[in-house]
Amino acid sequence: GAVVSQHPSRVICKSGTSVKIECRSLDFQATTMFWYRQFPKQSLMLMATSNEGSKATYEQGVEKDKFLINHASLTLSTLTVTSAHPEDSSFYICSARDPGTAADTIYFGEGSWLTVV
Amino acid sequence: SQKIEQNSEALNIQEGKTATLTCNYTNYSPAYLQWYRQDPGRGPVFLLLIRENEKEKRKERLKVTFDTTLKQSLFHITASQPADSATYLCALVPFSGGYNKLIFGAGTRLAVHP
Questions:
Q1: What pLDDT, on a 0 to 100 scale, did the predictor assign at position B97?
Q2: Which of A92, A94, B31, B43 gets the most CB atoms within 10 Å of its CB?
Q3: d(CA A66, CA A68)
C-alpha cells in the first residue's frame, strides 16, 4: 500500500540552529501534504498544509517564518525549523493524501523526534 | 468552543473482552470521522472511517458507530488481544476545509492484559 516516509526519525540540534525534516510519498504523488506537531500525551496539532508548487497554508498561531515549508515536488515536502529553541522539541508528523484513492485516504509518516538542546 | 474529547484515562481490560472507546465532539459538523491507532513514538495508522450519514462500520474485530445527535462516536474492539494495546485517536473532518483537515482528539490509551 501507499507509504509516507519521514527523515530523520530522530534529530538533536543545538539551540539557535536550523533543522530540516523531509516527508516523502513513496509510491504515489501527493499534491497536498500536512505537517503536525504532537507533544507528549497530547493530540496531533495541524501546523500547516503544504501545497506542491505554491505557498503553504499555516494554521493560526503557527509562525511561518519559523517553520518553513517547501513542497518542491509531488513526492517531497520539507519542514525546516529555523532558529530552534528547546520549546520546539516535539514529535513532528507529516501526512499525505493519495489522489488515486478515495478522497478520504490519508497516510501518515512515522514521525520525527526533534530535541533542541 | 470547539472540542473533541476522548477519555484521557487509560482503559485496562482483560484479553478476550470487548474494548469500547468514546469520542465526543462539540461545535463541529463533521463530514466524517476516522479512528487511528498510534503506538509510542510512531505515526498514526488509519483504522476505520465513518461518514456522517452512516450509523455503523465494521472491519474484522473493529466496529465504529456514529451518532450525530449525541455528537459521539464509539470504537469497539471485540475479542481483544494484548497486541491491541496502543493509543487510539479519533479525528474528525469538518465539512469546511476541503475535506483534508483532520482534527484529532488527544487519544485514549488501551491496555489489554493477558
A1: 62
A2: A94
A3: 6
**Looking at the complex, does the CB of residue A113 fall below 8 Å from at least one CB of chain B?**
yes
The series of mean pLDDT values per 10 residues for chain B, 114 residues long, is: 86 97 91 91 91 92 95 96 97 75 91 96
Closest CA to A90 of A113, A68, A108: A113
Q: Considering only CB atoms, which chain B residues are within 8 Å of A34?
A: 100, 102
- Measure A42 CA to nearest chain B CA, in Å: 5
